[in-house]
Design brief:
The chain is an alpha+beta fold. Helices cover 30% and strands 19% of the residues. Among the domains are: 48 residues, Uridine Diphospho-n-acetylenolpyruvylglucosamine Reductase, domain 2; 101 residues, CO dehydrogenase flavoprotein, C-terminal domain (Enolase-like, domain 1, 2-Layer Sandwich). Bound molecules: flavin-adenine dinucleotide and iron/sulfur cluster.
């Protein structure tokens, strides 16, 4: 491991100040991603700023009827928070579908948003990777690309964002609160993560020198008709091949509002306003769900080893929407709809 300086931040202003003083520094929260990357010499910070003592560990009500989740709330604490379980069960489900109990005990809300891709070539410093070393090439495009993107990829990078929690946050239209040297700002979740384009080294629109302080949940939690469906190679401790977070509002059998976001398919949690418009005002049935899936996947492109994900995504969308419409967020109904 490469030597680095270790420091603790005493408050948010101190954290921002310390980061501004050293552009090669990194914050550490749970350390479940950063420390692995440092061991592999993919991340090489000269200074690690421990933010674990900052007062960002509360889940609090907001004036507009939502919740503000501090950036240091652990994934386990968030998933088991009674307000999250009651009002945002899709978020609790998504978190519990990720990693392992031990990892969720350490992983923080802010760190989860900023975890890096699980593309094998990104972790292998012997291989070309535009995300790790801009301009070096992308080993995945002609390599083993089973886990990679089918939507929104570029000639420079076909990686996916690996988070489960972020898929639910995208569907819920959360907001990300950040603080930097020039003050505080709020970023809509849809604008937080980026597509790779020709700058795949940038995962998000967080500016250098900014810290995430909180994630804000709006009042609408879709607590009745929701689901988080995750398909992966093992039943636990595996990243999504495809995942879907759904929230529906129904009047009788008619969908008055429908949202769905996909994980495991793109460089960011993937939503499509046209696919959601295809749900609005329609009967909650298999024909409607298949049409919405078709709209979302119309530009999907597979590579040598992952073309199967296009049909898998279609099936997952239909199944997840069906489960949500039936008010059965788990998979009991799957045999009837596949
Ligand atoms: C074996 C394994 C399996 C996993 N499986 C899954 C899975 O199935 N689904 C899933 O979603 N995740 C999975 N994870 C990922 C895990 O959820 C993330 O590693 C975790 O959420 C990162 O949070 P952390 O607090 O540990 O981040 P850290 O490792 O501490 O930090 C990650 C990055 O975020 C930055 N950072 C942290 N907090 C802040 C902040 N407040 N402001 C600005 N920058 C910040 C750090 O500088 C660093 O760059 C898995 C991880 C492992 C190791
Ligand atoms: S897909 Fe992206 S992260 Fe993976 S090798 Fe290519 S450039 Fe690197």
């Amino acid at each position: 491991m490469i030597n680095f300086e270790y420091a603790r931040a005493s408050d948010v202003a101190d954290a921002v100040r310390q980061l501004a003083g050293n552009p090669a520094a990194k914050f550490v929260a749970g350390g479940t991603n950063l420390i692995d990357l440092m061991k592999m010499e993919v991340e090489r910070p000269t200074k690690v700023i421990d933010i674990n003592r900052l007062p960002l560990k509360q889940v609090e009500a907001t004036a507009v009827g939502g919740l503000r989740v501090g950036a240091l709330v652990r994934n386990t604490d968030l998933a088991y928070d009674p307000l999250i379980e009651q009002r945002y069960p899709v978020l609790a489900s998504a978190i519990m579908a990720g990693a392992s109990q031990q990892l969720r005990n350490m992983a923080s809300t802010g760190g989860n948003l900023l975890q890096r891709t699980r593309c094998h070539y990104f972790y292998d410093t012997a291989m070309p990777c535009n995300k790790r070393e801009p301009g070096s090439g992308c080993a995945a495009i002609t390599g083993h690309n089973r886990m990679h993107a089918i939507l929104g990829a570029s000639e420079a990078c076909i990686a996916t964002h690996p988070s489960d929690m972020c898929v639910a946050l995208a569907m819920l239209e959360a907001k990300v609160h950040v603080t930097g040297a020039s003050g505080e700002r709020v970023i809509a979740f849809a604008d937080f993560h980026r597509l790779p384009g020709d700058t795949p080294q940038r995962d998000t629109n967080l500016d250098a020198g900014e810290i995430i302080t909180a994630v804000e949940l709006p009042p609408q939690g879709f607590a009745t008709n929701y689901t988080y469906l995750k398909v992966r190679d093992r039943l636990s401790y595996a990243f999504a091949l495809v995942s879907v977070a759904v929230g529906l509002e129904l009047k009788g059998d008619t969908i008055t509002q429908g949202r769905f976001a996909l994980g495991g398919v793109a460089h960011k949690p993937w939503r499509d306003p046209n696919a959601e418009a295809a749900l609005r005002g329609q009967p909650a049935n298999a024909t409607t769900f298949a049409r919405a899936a078709q709209v979302l996947l119309k530009d999907a492109r597979g590579y040598e080893h992952n073309a199967f994900k296009i049909d898998l995504a279609r099936r997952c969308i239909v199944r997840a929407l069906t489960q949500a419409a039936r008010g059965m967020p788990q998979s009991q109904s799957s045999k009837k709809i596949m």
